[in-house]
Amino acid sequence: MTNAEELPDRRVDLDRAAAAVRELLLAVGEDPDREGLRETPARVARAYAEVFAGLSQDPADVLGTTFDIGHEEMILVKDIELYSTCEHHLVPFHGVAHVGYIPGVDGRVTGLSKLARLVEVFARRPQVQERLTSQIADALVEHLEPRGVLVVVECEHLCMSMRGVRKPGARTVTSAVRGQMRDVATRAEAMSLVLGR
Ligand SMILES: Nc1nc2c(ncn2[C@@H]2O[C@H](COP(=O)(O)OP(=O)(O)OP(=O)(O)O)[C@@H](O)[C@H]2O)c(=O)[nH]1
Ligand SMILES: [Zn+2]
Known about the structure:
It is a single chain. By secondary structure, the chain is α+β, with helices and mostly antiparallel strands. It has two domains: 48 residues, GTP Cyclohydrolase I, Chain A, domain 1, CATH 1.10.286; 131 residues, GTP cyclohydrolase I, C-terminal domain/NADPH-dependent 7-cyano-7-deazaguanine reductase, N-terminal domain (GTP Cyclohydrolase I, domain 2, 2-Layer Sandwich). The protein is built from seven helices and seven strands. The chain has a five-stranded mixed β-sheet with strand order 5-2-3-6-7. A hairpin with a 5-residue loop joins β2 and β3. α1 packs across α2 and α4 packs across α5. The radius of gyration is 19 Å and the shape is elongated. Guanosine-5'-triphosphate binds next to α5 and α6. It is an enzyme of class 3 (hydrolase). Pathway: Cofactor biosynthesis; 7,8-dihydroneopterin triphosphate biosynthesis; 7,8-dihydroneopterin triphosphate from GTP: step 1/1. It comes from Flavimobilis rhizosphaerae. Homopolymer.
């Protein structure tokens, strides 16, 4: 995938989503026609369109803007807040991503905000945290051709907090390391920057 035109049209079907939410309310024993719920199916459909907007976004568009500043050392943006949706239970998981890379031989970099936008593209989809982490890393490898990439994601999963095992506060940490970031010393430097709050 190189540009938005090549993506299938995956914009959310609002009417279909609203009908499904109405069915869900009926299934749990609610009355979707009572005053407080009357607008809820349409409202939830719009909310889902926002929460899953990443399905119709292409990381190539986000990382299309690069500039050559000849910087060859590590660049790390940390504590990028994220909200995603667990694909198993369709409830949120939220936390932070730390995204770092070492530019390629040409020293080309992307704008710092683009790293946060890249996180959004993949977070706003039904996800598991491991895939979210590796997709961010692999998109950077594909589009920036950097020497190395490190992505660390730390999240609390509401499916573990509000239901199921009910362990609020448990945080899941995942990482994806590519290229020169695999070197022990480089990785240690990146991790010390991530952990140094
Ligand atoms: N590896 C991984 N697991 C996840 C993620 N989000 C949710 N899960 C887990 O997915 C699993 C689904 O397990 P199932 O046994 O099929 O579903 P369940 O009966 O609802 O499981 P419980 O949550 O243990 O009640 C659970 O253990 C969740 O904690 C994620 O991002 N990565
Ligand atoms: Zn879950």
